[in-house]
Amino acid sequence: MDTHPPVPLVNDKDLIAGLAKGLRLIEAFDEMHSRLTSSEAARRVGISPAAARRCLLTLCQGGYAQTDGKRFWLNHGILRLSYAYSASTRLPRLLQPTLDALSERTRESASVAVLHGTEVMVAARSTARKSLTVGLGVGSRLPLHCSATGRVLLSSRPAAEFEILFNAMSLHRLTPHTLTDPIRLRKLLKACAENGYALSNEEIEIGVRSIAVPLYNMGGLVVGALSLSSRADRMTASEMAEQLLPAMLRSQAWVRSRLS
Description:
alpha+beta; 9 strands; 20% strand; Arc Repressor Mutant, subunit A; elongated; 260 residues
Protein backbone atom coordinates (compact mmCIF):
# COMPACT_ATOMS: atom_id res chain seq x y z
CA MET A 1 0.00 0.00 0.00
CA ASP A 2 1.22 3.51 -0.84
CA THR A 3 1.60 5.42 2.40
CA HIS A 4 2.84 8.65 0.86
CA PRO A 5 0.63 11.72 1.42
CA PRO A 6 -1.51 12.79 -1.53
CA VAL A 7 -0.14 15.39 -3.90
CA PRO A 8 -1.69 18.75 -3.03
CA LEU A 9 -4.02 20.36 -5.56
CA VAL A 10 -2.25 22.77 -7.90
CA ASN A 11 -3.32 25.36 -10.42
CA ASP A 12 -3.18 24.61 -14.13
CA LYS A 13 -0.61 27.36 -14.52
CA ASP A 14 1.77 25.32 -12.35
CA LEU A 15 1.65 22.37 -14.76
CA ILE A 16 3.64 21.74 -17.94
CA ALA A 17 1.16 20.75 -20.62
CA GLY A 18 3.84 19.48 -23.00
CA LEU A 19 5.21 17.06 -20.42
CA ALA A 20 1.72 15.73 -19.72
CA LYS A 21 1.15 15.17 -23.44
CA GLY A 22 4.48 13.40 -23.79
CA LEU A 23 3.72 11.01 -20.95
CA ARG A 24 0.29 10.24 -22.39
CA LEU A 25 1.88 9.55 -25.76
CA ILE A 26 4.27 7.05 -24.19
CA GLU A 27 1.25 5.23 -22.76
CA ALA A 28 -0.38 5.19 -26.22
CA PHE A 29 2.01 2.46 -27.35
CA ASP A 30 1.13 -1.12 -26.45
CA GLU A 31 1.27 -4.62 -27.90
CA MET A 32 -1.47 -3.87 -30.43
CA HIS A 33 -0.16 -0.40 -31.26
CA SER A 34 3.63 -0.76 -31.31
CA ARG A 35 4.12 1.59 -34.30
CA LEU A 36 2.01 4.70 -34.78
CA THR A 37 1.91 7.70 -37.07
CA SER A 38 1.64 11.06 -35.34
CA SER A 39 -2.03 11.24 -36.37
CA GLU A 40 -2.76 7.79 -34.95
CA ALA A 41 -0.98 8.63 -31.71
CA ALA A 42 -2.85 11.94 -31.51
CA ARG A 43 -6.21 10.21 -31.80
CA ARG A 44 -5.33 7.73 -29.07
CA VAL A 45 -4.57 10.44 -26.53
CA GLY A 46 -6.87 13.22 -27.74
CA ILE A 47 -4.39 15.88 -28.85
CA SER A 48 -3.64 17.53 -32.19
CA PRO A 49 -1.44 15.74 -34.73
CA ALA A 50 0.97 18.69 -34.71
CA ALA A 51 1.38 18.50 -30.92
CA ALA A 52 1.77 14.72 -31.10
CA ARG A 53 4.47 15.02 -33.75
CA ARG A 54 6.45 17.55 -31.70
CA CYS A 55 6.26 15.34 -28.62
CA LEU A 56 7.23 12.23 -30.57
CA LEU A 57 10.20 13.96 -32.19
CA THR A 58 11.27 15.12 -28.72
CA LEU A 59 11.13 11.50 -27.51
CA CYS A 60 13.26 10.49 -30.50
CA GLN A 61 15.77 13.22 -29.73
CA GLY A 62 15.98 12.02 -26.12
CA GLY A 63 16.64 8.42 -27.16
CA TYR A 64 13.25 7.11 -26.03
CA ALA A 65 11.73 6.49 -29.48
CA GLN A 66 12.62 6.03 -33.13
CA THR A 67 11.00 6.94 -36.44
CA ASP A 68 11.31 6.03 -40.09
CA GLY A 69 9.91 9.40 -41.07
CA LYS A 70 6.31 8.23 -40.98
CA ARG A 71 5.75 5.94 -38.03
CA PHE A 72 7.12 6.15 -34.51
CA TRP A 73 7.93 3.41 -32.00
CA LEU A 74 9.45 3.20 -28.54
CA ASN A 75 12.95 1.77 -28.19
CA HIS A 76 15.12 0.43 -25.37
CA GLY A 77 15.71 3.94 -24.02
CA ILE A 78 12.23 3.99 -22.54
CA LEU A 79 13.41 1.36 -20.04
CA ARG A 80 15.46 4.06 -18.33
CA LEU A 81 12.27 5.54 -16.91
CA SER A 82 11.15 2.43 -15.04
CA TYR A 83 14.60 1.50 -13.82
CA ALA A 84 15.34 5.02 -12.67
CA TYR A 85 12.40 4.59 -10.32
CA SER A 86 13.83 1.34 -8.97
CA ALA A 87 17.21 2.95 -8.47
CA SER A 88 15.86 5.96 -6.61
CA THR A 89 13.43 4.41 -4.16
CA ARG A 90 13.23 1.40 -1.91
CA LEU A 91 15.86 -0.90 -3.37
CA PRO A 92 19.06 0.94 -2.38
CA ARG A 93 17.74 1.87 1.06
CA LEU A 94 16.75 -1.72 1.78
CA LEU A 95 20.02 -3.16 0.53
CA GLN A 96 22.62 -0.86 2.05
CA PRO A 97 22.86 -2.74 5.40
CA THR A 98 23.09 -6.05 3.53
CA LEU A 99 25.78 -4.67 1.24
CA ASP A 100 27.78 -3.37 4.19
CA ALA A 101 27.59 -6.76 5.93
CA LEU A 102 28.50 -8.69 2.77
CA SER A 103 31.43 -6.41 2.01
CA GLU A 104 32.74 -6.64 5.56
CA ARG A 105 32.37 -10.42 5.65
CA THR A 106 34.08 -11.04 2.30
CA ARG A 107 36.52 -8.10 2.46
CA GLU A 108 35.51 -7.22 -1.10
CA SER A 109 33.65 -4.31 -2.69
CA ALA A 110 29.91 -4.95 -2.95
CA SER A 111 27.50 -3.20 -5.30
CA VAL A 112 23.91 -3.32 -6.46
CA ALA A 113 23.15 -2.22 -10.01
CA VAL A 114 19.98 -1.78 -12.03
CA LEU A 115 19.34 -1.79 -15.75
CA HIS A 116 19.61 1.67 -17.32
CA GLY A 117 19.00 1.48 -21.06
CA THR A 118 21.97 -0.33 -22.60
CA GLU A 119 24.03 0.18 -19.46
CA VAL A 120 23.80 -0.70 -15.79
CA MET A 121 23.76 1.95 -13.10
CA VAL A 122 25.19 1.49 -9.62
CA ALA A 123 22.32 2.04 -7.16
CA ALA A 124 24.14 1.20 -3.92
CA ARG A 125 27.72 0.37 -2.97
CA SER A 126 29.84 -0.63 0.01
CA THR A 127 33.61 -0.94 0.28
CA ALA A 128 35.09 -2.81 3.24
CA ARG A 129 38.38 -1.98 4.86
CA LYS A 130 41.38 -3.33 2.90
CA SER A 131 39.14 -4.20 -0.04
CA LEU A 132 39.28 -3.04 -3.62
CA THR A 133 38.76 0.70 -4.06
CA VAL A 134 37.90 1.29 -7.71
CA GLY A 135 36.46 4.58 -8.90
CA LEU A 136 32.82 3.50 -8.89
CA GLY A 137 30.14 5.22 -6.89
CA VAL A 138 26.37 5.43 -6.79
CA GLY A 139 25.22 6.63 -10.20
CA SER A 140 28.23 5.22 -12.06
CA ARG A 141 27.39 3.38 -15.26
CA LEU A 142 28.90 0.26 -16.79
CA PRO A 143 28.31 -1.43 -20.15
CA LEU A 144 25.96 -4.39 -20.30
CA HIS A 145 28.11 -6.67 -22.41
CA CYS A 146 31.24 -6.91 -20.26
CA SER A 147 30.21 -6.16 -16.67
CA ALA A 148 29.12 -8.99 -14.39
CA THR A 149 26.02 -7.07 -13.30
CA GLY A 150 25.19 -6.21 -16.89
CA ARG A 151 25.42 -9.83 -17.98
CA VAL A 152 23.20 -10.97 -15.13
CA LEU A 153 20.56 -8.34 -15.88
CA LEU A 154 20.68 -8.86 -19.64
CA SER A 155 20.48 -12.65 -19.42
CA SER A 156 17.43 -12.40 -17.14
CA ARG A 157 15.31 -10.32 -19.53
CA PRO A 158 12.36 -11.81 -21.46
CA ALA A 159 13.30 -12.94 -24.95
CA ALA A 160 11.87 -9.96 -26.84
CA GLU A 161 13.44 -7.42 -24.50
CA PHE A 162 16.73 -9.33 -24.57
CA GLU A 163 16.90 -9.03 -28.36
CA ILE A 164 16.18 -5.29 -28.27
CA LEU A 165 18.91 -4.69 -25.73
CA PHE A 166 21.41 -7.06 -27.32
CA ASN A 167 21.03 -5.50 -30.76
CA ALA A 168 21.24 -1.98 -29.32
CA MET A 169 24.46 -2.57 -27.38
CA SER A 170 27.80 -1.26 -28.54
CA LEU A 171 30.22 -4.15 -28.08
CA HIS A 172 33.23 -1.94 -27.53
CA ARG A 173 36.50 -3.25 -26.12
CA LEU A 174 37.66 -1.79 -22.79
CA THR A 175 40.62 -4.11 -22.17
CA PRO A 176 42.38 -6.87 -24.16
CA HIS A 177 40.16 -9.34 -22.27
CA THR A 178 36.79 -7.78 -23.19
CA LEU A 179 34.52 -10.22 -25.02
CA THR A 180 33.13 -8.47 -28.10
CA ASP A 181 32.21 -11.35 -30.41
CA PRO A 182 28.37 -11.44 -30.52
CA ILE A 183 28.12 -15.20 -31.06
CA ARG A 184 30.39 -16.03 -28.13
CA LEU A 185 28.62 -13.42 -26.00
CA ARG A 186 25.22 -14.97 -26.69
CA LYS A 187 26.56 -18.35 -25.57
CA LEU A 188 28.02 -16.81 -22.44
CA LEU A 189 24.76 -15.05 -21.57
CA LYS A 190 22.86 -18.31 -22.01
CA ALA A 191 25.28 -19.94 -19.56
CA CYS A 192 24.78 -17.03 -17.14
CA ALA A 193 21.03 -17.60 -17.17
CA GLU A 194 21.49 -21.33 -16.60
CA ASN A 195 24.10 -20.99 -13.84
CA GLY A 196 22.44 -18.12 -11.99
CA TYR A 197 25.53 -15.92 -11.88
CA ALA A 198 27.96 -14.06 -14.15
CA LEU A 199 31.66 -13.24 -14.11
CA SER A 200 33.69 -10.42 -15.60
CA ASN A 201 37.36 -11.36 -15.79
CA GLU A 202 39.41 -8.16 -16.21
CA GLU A 203 37.04 -7.07 -18.99
CA ILE A 204 36.20 -3.66 -17.50
CA GLU A 205 39.56 -2.89 -15.94
CA ILE A 206 42.85 -4.78 -15.92
CA GLY A 207 43.44 -6.29 -12.50
CA VAL A 208 39.77 -6.38 -11.46
CA ARG A 209 37.43 -9.37 -11.46
CA SER A 210 33.72 -9.31 -10.58
CA ILE A 211 30.97 -11.80 -9.91
CA ALA A 212 27.23 -11.01 -9.88
CA VAL A 213 23.91 -12.68 -9.11
CA PRO A 214 20.39 -11.46 -9.91
CA LEU A 215 18.19 -9.98 -7.20
CA TYR A 216 14.55 -11.06 -7.22
CA ASN A 217 11.43 -9.77 -5.55
CA MET A 218 8.84 -12.07 -3.98
CA GLY A 219 7.13 -12.41 -7.35
CA GLY A 220 10.27 -13.77 -8.98
CA LEU A 221 11.00 -10.68 -11.07
CA VAL A 222 14.60 -9.55 -11.39
CA VAL A 223 14.90 -6.06 -9.90
CA GLY A 224 18.68 -5.65 -9.84
CA ALA A 225 22.03 -7.38 -9.62
CA LEU A 226 24.34 -7.89 -6.65
CA SER A 227 28.08 -8.00 -7.33
CA LEU A 228 31.40 -8.40 -5.56
CA SER A 229 34.63 -7.10 -7.08
CA SER A 230 38.14 -8.22 -6.22
CA ARG A 231 41.70 -7.62 -7.29
CA ALA A 232 42.78 -10.22 -9.79
CA ASP A 233 45.82 -11.13 -7.69
CA ARG A 234 43.60 -12.08 -4.75
CA MET A 235 41.72 -14.93 -6.41
CA THR A 236 41.00 -16.48 -9.79
CA ALA A 237 37.58 -16.35 -11.44
CA SER A 238 36.84 -19.94 -10.41
CA GLU A 239 37.93 -19.18 -6.84
CA MET A 240 35.54 -16.22 -6.79
CA ALA A 241 32.65 -18.49 -7.68
CA GLU A 242 33.72 -21.06 -5.09
CA GLN A 243 34.49 -18.68 -2.22
CA LEU A 244 32.12 -15.73 -2.72
CA LEU A 245 29.01 -17.19 -4.34
CA PRO A 246 27.62 -18.89 -1.19
CA ALA A 247 27.54 -15.61 0.75
CA MET A 248 26.03 -13.81 -2.22
CA LEU A 249 23.27 -16.39 -2.56
CA ARG A 250 22.39 -15.96 1.11
CA SER A 251 22.10 -12.22 0.55
CA GLN A 252 20.04 -12.89 -2.57
CA ALA A 253 17.58 -15.03 -0.58
CA TRP A 254 17.32 -12.40 2.16
CA VAL A 255 16.48 -9.68 -0.36
CA ARG A 256 13.88 -11.83 -2.10
CA SER A 257 12.08 -12.46 1.18
CA ARG A 258 11.70 -8.73 1.77
CA LEU A 259 10.95 -7.23 -1.63
CA SER A 260 7.27 -7.34 -2.56
